[in-house]
């Protein structure tokens, strides 16, 4: 009689426990390849079991909201403290506007602290239990509405907003103060610029200075058919307000034959056929620089608005809305060309209260 000792090598593979488990999982995947894996077990946070840790988190959130309020106050104060033309050196940014830097820094801190405070509050103090919501039709029935309200009240309760008064009050303070930064920004919408658009650097007695040479002009310096760019006496290119002033005071001189001037006022405001008109196009403010000697027309290169300098600089083509303003000129006792007054009307594009 012979004996036989069994081993796992003698057992068919499909009968091994591991193989049966694998086959069972494979069958399950075939039946439902998108089976819900479920949620991991909930682990309590330190703040859930330690009231001192919860108090520390509460104070941290309140501190963030308080810093947000202080940053908003700093944003508003920056408008008063820093002039618009003040520049400071900040490494590694280099030279930068003090006003722009302070506004960006304070507003960024104010918004960041509100967000960081809200996130820290949610992650450390609010309930972190996973809630499963089954899909439902888009329309809401009465039971759903009641459930939503119940969930809302439950969420408000779990957020501890009623219990954590320090967080609640500082959050309301931060949310109430930060919109004030937007109110301050409205300052730039009005009533500025008041009447600044109606006046330029020209006034009675101001000499007409050649922009290229910086020298005052005599009538004989302007020949028939020439175009000379001039600016008012005393306006220096290196001054901090040069660009702002020249944007309104830039003037072109053209000498015409007096008999070619068709407009009576233009002739009266000229000197020996020398006429002075604003270089700022009345469409969108581009510089008018292209001059055609034969027709006495000047052209704006931006949108091709064309003005007739022999007829009061009226618009003969293009989108410009009104003629170029004329500067009344004359000659002083020393024989230099000078302005008799400022422009009689605002220069440049139209604006809503121009009239």
Automatic annotation (TrEMBL):
<keyword id="KW-1133">Transmembrane helix</keyword>
<keyword id="KW-0679">Respiratory chain</keyword>
<dbReference type="GO" id="GO:0016705">
    <property type="term" value="F:oxidoreductase activity, acting on paired donors, with incorporation or reduction of molecular oxygen"/>
</dbReference>
<keyword id="KW-0812">Transmembrane</keyword>
<keyword id="KW-0408">Iron</keyword>
<keyword id="KW-0411">Iron-sulfur</keyword>
<keyword id="KW-0001">2Fe-2S</keyword>
<keyword id="KW-0249">Electron transport</keyword>
<dbReference type="GO" id="GO:0051537">
    <property type="term" value="F:2 iron, 2 sulfur cluster binding"/>
</dbReference>
<dbReference type="InterPro" id="IPR017941">
    <property type="entry name" value="Rieske_2Fe-2S"/>
</dbReference>
<keyword id="KW-0560">Oxidoreductase</keyword>
<keyword id="KW-1003">Cell membrane</keyword>
<dbReference type="GO" id="GO:0005886">
    <property type="term" value="C:plasma membrane"/>
</dbReference>
<feature type="transmembrane region" description="Helical">
    <location>
        <begin position="101"/>
        <end position="122"/>
    </location>
</feature>
<feature type="transmembrane region" description="Helical">
    <location>
        <begin position="166"/>
        <end position="186"/>
    </location>
</feature>
<feature type="region of interest" description="Disordered">
    <location>
        <begin position="1"/>
        <end position="45"/>
    </location>
</feature>
<dbReference type="InterPro" id="IPR045603">
    <property type="entry name" value="QcrA_N"/>
</dbReference>
<feature type="domain" description="Rieske">
    <location>
        <begin position="248"/>
        <end position="338"/>
    </location>
</feature>
<keyword id="KW-0813">Transport</keyword>
<comment type="function">
    <text>Iron-sulfur subunit of the cytochrome bc1 complex, an essential component of the respiratory electron transport chain required for ATP synthesis. The bc1 complex catalyzes the oxidation of menaquinol and the reduction of cytochrome c in the respiratory chain. The bc1 complex operates through a Q-cycle mechanism that couples electron transfer to generation of the proton gradient that drives ATP synthesis.</text>
</comment>
<comment type="subunit">
    <text>The cytochrome bc1 complex is composed of a cytochrome b (QcrB), the Rieske iron-sulfur protein (QcrA) and a diheme cytochrome c (QcrC) subunit.</text>
</comment>
<keyword id="KW-0472">Membrane</keyword>
<dbReference type="GO" id="GO:0004497">
    <property type="term" value="F:monooxygenase activity"/>
</dbReference>
<dbReference type="Pfam" id="PF19297">
    <property type="entry name" value="QcrA_N"/>
</dbReference>
<comment type="similarity">
    <text>Belongs to the Rieske iron-sulfur protein family.</text>
</comment>
<keyword id="KW-0479">Metal-binding</keyword>
<feature type="compositionally biased region" description="Basic and acidic residues">
    <location>
        <begin position="20"/>
        <end position="32"/>
    </location>
</feature>
<dbReference type="GO" id="GO:0046872">
    <property type="term" value="F:metal ion binding"/>
</dbReference>
<keyword id="KW-1015">Disulfide bond</keyword>
<dbReference type="InterPro" id="IPR036922">
    <property type="entry name" value="Rieske_2Fe-2S_sf"/>
</dbReference>
<dbReference type="InterPro" id="IPR014349">
    <property type="entry name" value="Rieske_Fe-S_prot"/>
</dbReference>
<protein>
    <recommendedName>
        <fullName>Cytochrome bc1 complex Rieske iron-sulfur subunit</fullName>
    </recommendedName>
</protein>
<feature type="transmembrane region" description="Helical">
    <location>
        <begin position="61"/>
        <end position="81"/>
    </location>
</feature>
<feature type="compositionally biased region" description="Basic and acidic residues">
    <location>
        <begin position="1"/>
        <end position="10"/>
    </location>
</feature>
<dbReference type="Pfam" id="PF00355">
    <property type="entry name" value="Rieske"/>
</dbReference>
